[in-house]
Amino acid sequence: MTVNPSNAAAIAPNPLLLGKGLPPFDRVRPEHVVPALTQLLADLETSLTQLEATVRPTWEGLVEPLQDIEERLRWSWGIVGHLMGVQNSPTLREAYETIQPKVVEFYNRFGQSRPLYDAFKRIRDGEGWVALESAQQRIVESAIRNAELSGVGLEGDRKERFNAIQLELANLTTQFSNHVLDATKAFSLTLQDKDDVAGLPASLLAFAAQSAREAGSPEATPEAGPWRITLDFPSFGPFMQHSSRRDLREKLYRAFISRAASGEYDNSQIIERILALRQEEAELLGYKTFAEVSLASKMAPTVDSVEALLEALRQPSYRAAQQELEELKAFAASRNAPEGSDLKHWDTSFWAERLREERYSLNDEELRPYFPLPQVLEGLFGLVHRIFGITVTPADGEAPVWNPDVRYFQIANDQGDAIAHFYLDPYSRPAEKRGGAWMDDCIGRAKVGGTLRTPVAYLVCNQTPPVDGKPSLMTFREVETLFHEFGHGLHHMLTRVDFAGAAGINNVEWDAVELPSQFMENWCYDRATLFGMARHYETGAPLPEKYYQRLLAARTYMSGSATLRQVYFSTMDIELHHRYQPGGSETIQQLRDRIAQTATVLKPLPEDAFLCSFGHIFAGGYSAGYYSYKWAEVLSADAFAAFEEAGLDNDAAVIETGRRFRETVLALGGSKHPMEVFKAFRGREPNTEALLRHSGLLQAA
């Protein structure tokens, strides 16, 4: 697709130039991207130049006009970025990649504006500083820090090189993400014989037959096949748990760990280049490593403090994971499995599920019928009404959507006033939608010209879609994921801050931003919450009490392995961005093997290339920050412990604690430092005891 920017007027009106309100997804097309952004960037360049020439070191003279420039670009470019995640296509990619360098150049110009930087510093150092609210002060301080991290202090060749690095990194991270999506789509396993699908549950057989029909086998049925298995997680995960064909598990596993590691989608050299550029960027900014750059804007003060937390979690989780692996080996041997006590990577999910069934009389497939998406939403909305006093109602049809499966909802306060909205895009669409789950900002809360603009969030999941006329029947992990993303959404939507730069998740340190999301996951095990949503989709019968008790008993099952896995990923991330030297004596594979010695109990295969699909750190916001999940989980577990101490069956106490959580953690957004926010809720600083207890690792510690 080639679009001449001079023809922008011919595409009229361009929906990406509206600049405010709900995105017109029913009208946005890839061909709108280049002309709209070309025109917008030219307009914003003029506005920025005028502001630099007339800037006054006051809130009204600097921050408000600058916010207007930022938000106009964020609105248009945000829509394009969102569609790249949920409706990816070759034409959209081409448009995105055509205009992305211009967007990066503008952000560099914006971030390196010396007149604006000097004006921010004059606000901070001026007499009016003490009169500003804490949110305003945090916005100013962040603007100064962000300018410094954007290279505002660089001159000449150093500035030119820094900007070239930003352009190249933007291109490489986009390539990385596209390669993962394409490599995931490129592999599939079409199974023809009944023996090939031995052990697979009915839900996966139906899903695999539907996938086969979509891929060009209209005759496919759940009973007779053919069945198409992919690397998309709603297909890959259940197959690895349930397939009794060890050879096929191995084939699928090897394909999964080698995604984007060879051929036309190879990310291995991209990784080396990204790491080299990030290290060079850090040195240009006066830091020793990129990890130090990353932590300059986070809650954790130093790399040492991050590594201290990871080591505090590694020791108990390693001991627990060792014991868990030995238990799996013994169980497999007791069942006379050929793999016996020599379990491989493609065996652990299968035998972990078999042992879970044996020990707790529980498996994901038995639970699925009790968790159809509509009822899970009903239970989730009932919970937030109970603890936060808000009411969620459908608002479908009030906003254009990018796919027919997308829902739109309203959130109202206890007076019935609409205070926020959100989109929900729940289902996996491997042909166009990247994997994982996320929340993103569509519209942020702000006072604009004396009028309050209410927030709108995107909530995106990749759960099992409806199959053969049945609703989406969710695994319990998919339920937890939905609660997790809704927690992020609440953080964005329930803010009380009226300054856009500190409302919701804006200006919240990255390693604290997972607090509300991980906090919400805990409620999946709360009796009132669970029974408020768990009913059989056909009969309406509530979840049997025995299943609830088994869920509680199994909550910490394999938690040592799960915790150690996160520690392993986090440690890899920090090492790559703090000690690894691209082109040095230690290769990435050697570094991985060194870390694996103490952070895994089943050493990775030589060909394991999981880093080639590790989008969090190479295409997302978690570079030198993946530890944030565990850092914030300490906060979230301790926050939920406040409800446990109040008494989860004491409705009045739960409501009172919930309102306090809403008025602090959710309402204050980025207006205060996360430690201040946490102490305002909890009355003290956090500790790791609740996390270790919830994970069943307290004794192991």
The shape, in one word, is globular
Number of individual domains: 4
Number of helices: 26
Q: Say which CATH homologous superfamily of the largest domain is assigned.
A: Neurolysin, domain 3
CATH architecture classification name of the largest domain: Orthogonal Bundle
Give the distance, in angstroms, between the N- and C-terminal Cα atoms: 58 Å
Uncertain residue segments: 1-11
| Level-1 CATH class name of the largest domain | Mainly Alpha
Proportion of strand residues: 5-15%
Q: Quaternary status of these chains?
A: single chain
Main pleated sheet: 5 strands, mixed
What is the total tally of β strands?
A: 9
Structural class: alpha+beta
Helix content: 55-70%
Mean pLDDT: 96
Kindly report the CATH topology of the largest domain.
Neurolysin, domain 3
Q: Compute the CA-based radius of gyration.
A: 25 Å
Q: In order across it, which strands form the biggest sheet?
A: 3-4-5-9-6
Description:
It is a single chain. The chain has 26 helices and 9 strands. It is an alpha+beta fold and 701 residues long. A hairpin with a 2-residue loop joins β7 and β8. The longest helix has 32 residues, at 303-334. Strands 3-4-5-9-6 form a 5-stranded mixed beta sheet, sandwiched between helices. The termini are far apart. α4 packs antiparallel against α5 (134-149), α16 (476-493) packs antiparallel against α17 (515-521) and α20 (559-578) packs antiparallel against α21 (588-599). It has 4 domains: 5-153, Neurolysin, domain 3 (Orthogonal Bundle); 187-259, no CATH class; 264-360 and 559-626, Orthogonal Bundle (Neurolysin, domain 3); 368-521, Orthogonal Bundle (Neurolysin, domain 3). The protein has helices spanning 30-54, 59-86, 90-111, 114-125, 134-149, 156-186, 202-214, 233-242, 246-257, 268-284, 290-295, 303-334, 345-360, 364-367, 373-388, 476-493, 515-521, 527-531, 545-554, 559-578, 588-599, 615-618, 628-646, 651-666, 674-682, 689-694; strands spanning 188-191, 227-230, 391-394, 407-412, 418-427, 438-443, 446-448, 451-453, 456-463.
